[in-house]
Amino acid sequence: MAIELDRNHRGFIPINSSTDINSSVDTVTTPNQSESFMMMRDDAPDSTAVKRGDYLAGPNQWPAGVPGFREAVDAYNDAMTNLGRHLVDLLAAGLGDTAGELHKAFLTPTTWLRLLYYPPQPAGRATISSDRRHIETSGSSRCWPKTMWGASRFMRPEGSGSMYHLSMGPL
């Protein structure tokens, strides 16, 4: 896929090219053995957020020549955004938020959809590191530990390769 990850974290990350140097959990020394396509809330280039230079505001990038990809990913993102808003509303009701203040905080949520793929590894090649903090494959890590942020995270079952994140920002 010929879409480089842009400054707004949208695009494609090729295998063995992502090293999380900001981990507060571990000292990361090698790239993750994964590839991913990332999109966020789609902001038009002429939107107020983009013109102001808001952090992470921008349009998504889409691959050419993959019929139906954008429509399917957009539909999934919309469904997860609606689920997140519904859960926020349930939480607000449980907290007695009759003024709708919590709902207002998510009117323009930061959504982050990452389609993540870890290629299969030959049997016996993957091991748990000696400190039991990550999975190693031939001296590198498939996925280093990291600090997560945000208000909620929806992950699909094992083998589906995707994750959805709805956030108000660091908590």
Task: Let me know the largest β-sheet.
Answer: 5 strands, antiparallel
> Cα distance, first to last residue?
33 Å
Q: Tell how many strands the DSSP assignment holds.
A: 8
Q: How many DSSP helices?
A: 3
Look at the structure and give the mean pLDDT.
Answer: 76
- Over all CA atoms, what is the radius of gyration? 18 Å
Helical residues, percent = 10-25%
Give me the side-by-side strand order of the main sheet: 1-2-3-8-7
Structural class: alpha+beta
Order of helices and strands: EEHHHEEEEEE
| Stretches with pLDDT under 50, minimum 5 residues | 161-171
Q: Which geometry do the CA atoms define?
A: globular
**Per DSSP, what share of the residues sits in E-state strands of 2 or more residues?**
15-25%
Question: How does this structure look, described?
Answer:
- This protein has 171 residues and is of the alpha+beta class.
- Strands 1-2-3-8-7 form a 5-stranded antiparallel sheet, covered by helices on one side. It has a 3-stranded antiparallel sheet with strand order 4-5-6, with no helix packed on it.
- It is built from 3 helices and 8 strands; from the N terminus they run E-E-H-H-H-E-E-E-E-E-E.
- A hairpin with a 6-residue loop joins strand 4 and strand 5.
- Helix content is 21%, strand content 22%.
Short descriptors:
3-stranded antiparallel sheet, disordered C terminus, single chain, globular, alpha+beta, 5-stranded antiparallel sheet, 171 residues
Give a brief description.
This protein is an alpha+beta fold. It has three helices and eight strands; from the N terminus they run ββαααββββββ.
